[in-house]
């Protein structure tokens, strides 16, 4: 069986829903642990290898590597997700300490009080009783004398709880107040069940040692903690060129834990650490095409970008006729420029002759098709990779066909293999 025979949902996180540890946190845009498992088998990876993951996300590649006893290193720019991954990868937490904590908080929360102000956004997303319990649990964890890895573990359980007891879905960029969620359990009961479920899951990896490292780092920049030529393969899924604002997606949890407080802090602390994947990452007024053409990226990839520029111009003209006037033309150029930087760092850490597997999707901003996967393959060749192969996984974007102005171009989700 090769990658072409994998099921069409391999590029989604559906498989991760029922797999221990993988299901501790699933992101809006994720991919299946089965893909990582299949690549490990196809490439015959072992404990002498090291996997590089430049967009660690919620840890699918790193968790899969550790379950197989294969060393791996990864970068993640978001503080929230960095801590999620740390919790997923540390299987040495003291279970007795966790159980003792749960006994203490159960005795305390019933008569507890919380007098600090709640974040305004969260006040619109949770019932009063659940809001109190969420904040009470958060501070009880912070103020406890637990070891740090236990606190990280419990905060991940609390992060899951935030999703499970919200009045409206929160794992989306723009929260819809029209869609209501129903739940019978309180925030505390949900948290308690989640903690003990996670403890149960640790039994499935009992005796396995930690062989992975996660760094809070921007993969467009050199990570001095990862040595040159130290990795034998890369397995990752970069942001797609589809205007998904990852900082916006995670804002409820980020605000709750105090990583961010408002739009500006999301920009400064989150968006600036990520590959440009949304029009919210930059100021349109600050972009000048001729000045941009003096960049190292354009100079090194001139023939590729010059072929793309006519479509970029079309996108810009169409945007002027649309209500949102989204600057997708600028987004595309910044996106490819950022991915060029990612590829340069990827090529540095990979040994000569190593492969990279990337789950990617094509794009059609304002109905103009951008062959994202192929363009990235060509850019990668200018970063030291010798060639590339594209394997189509499935068609994507069809569920939005009913939207006004929605294009009818068939998009695909692919695996880009660099060598």
Automatic annotation (TrEMBL):
InterPro entries, alphabetized: MeTrfase_CN4_CS (IPR017985), SAM-dependent_MTases_sf (IPR029063)
GO MF term set: DNA binding; site-specific DNA-methyltransferase (cytosine-N4-specific) activity
Keyword Protein biosynthesis: no
Domain of life: Bacteria
Gene Ontology biological-process annotations: DNA restriction-modification system; methylation
Organism for this UniProt entry: Zunongwangia pacifica
Annotated protein name in UniProt: site-specific DNA-methyltransferase (cytosine-N(4)-specific)
Family membership: Belongs to the N(4)/N(6)-methyltransferase family. N(4) subfamily.
Keywords in alphabetical order: Methyltransferase, Restriction system, S-adenosyl-L-methionine, Transferase
Catalytic activity: a 2'-deoxycytidine in DNA + S-adenosyl-L-methionine = an N(4)-methyl-2'-deoxycytidine in DNA + S-adenosyl-L-homocysteine + H(+)
E.C. designation(s): 2.1.1.113
């Amino acid at each position: 069986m090769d990658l072409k025979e994998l099921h069409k949902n391999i590029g989604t996180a559906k498989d991760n829903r029922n797999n221990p540890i993988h299901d501790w946190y699933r992101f809006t845009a994720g991919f299946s642990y089965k893909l990582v498992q299949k690549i490990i088998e196809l490439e015959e990876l072992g404990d002498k290898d090291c996997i590089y993951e430049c967009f660690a996300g919620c840890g699918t590649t790193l968790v899969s590597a550790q379950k197989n006893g294969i060393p791996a290193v990864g970068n993640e720019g978001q503080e929230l997700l960095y801590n999620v991954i740390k919790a997923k990868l540390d299987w040495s937490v003291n279970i007795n300490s966790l159980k003792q904590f749960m006994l203490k908080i159960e005795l305390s929360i019933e008569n507890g009080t919380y007098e600090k102000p709640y974040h305004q956004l969260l006040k619109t997303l949770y019932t009063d009783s659940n809001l109190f319990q969420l904040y009470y649990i958060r501070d009880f964890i912070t103020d406890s004398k637990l070891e740090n890895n236990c606190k990280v573990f419990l905060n991940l359980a609390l992060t899951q709880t935030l999703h499970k007891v919200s009045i409206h879905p929160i794992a989306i960029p723009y929260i819809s107040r029209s869609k209501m969620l129903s739940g019978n359990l309180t925030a505390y009961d949900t948290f308690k069940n989640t903690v003990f479920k996670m403890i149960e899951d640790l039994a499935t990896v009992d005796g396995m040692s930690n062989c992975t490292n996660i760094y809070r780092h921007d993969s467009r920049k050199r990570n001095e903690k990862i040595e040159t030529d130290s990795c034998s393969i890369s397995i990752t899924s970069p942001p797609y060129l589809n205007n998904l604002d990852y900082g916006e997606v995670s804002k409820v949890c980020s605000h709750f834990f105090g990583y961010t407080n408002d739009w500006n802090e999301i920009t400064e602390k989150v968006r600036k650490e990520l590959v440009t994947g949304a029009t919210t990452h930059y100021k349109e007024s600050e972009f000048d095409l001729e000045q941009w053409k003096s960049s190292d990226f354009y100079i090194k990839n001139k023939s590729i970008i010059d072929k793309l520029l006519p479509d970029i111009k079309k996108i810009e003209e169409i945007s002027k006729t649309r209500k949102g006037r989204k600057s997708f033309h600028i987004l595309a150029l910044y996106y490819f420029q950022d991915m060029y930087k990612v590829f340069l760092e990827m090529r540095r850490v990979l040994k000569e002759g190593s492969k990279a597997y990337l789950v990617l999707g094509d794009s059609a901003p304002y109905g103009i098709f951008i062959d994202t996967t192929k363009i990235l393959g060509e850019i990668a060749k200018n970063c030291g990779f010798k060639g590339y192969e594209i394997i189509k996984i499935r068609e994507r974007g069809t569920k939005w066909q009913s939207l006004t102005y929605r294009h009818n171009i068939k998009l695909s989700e692919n695996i880009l293999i660099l060598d």
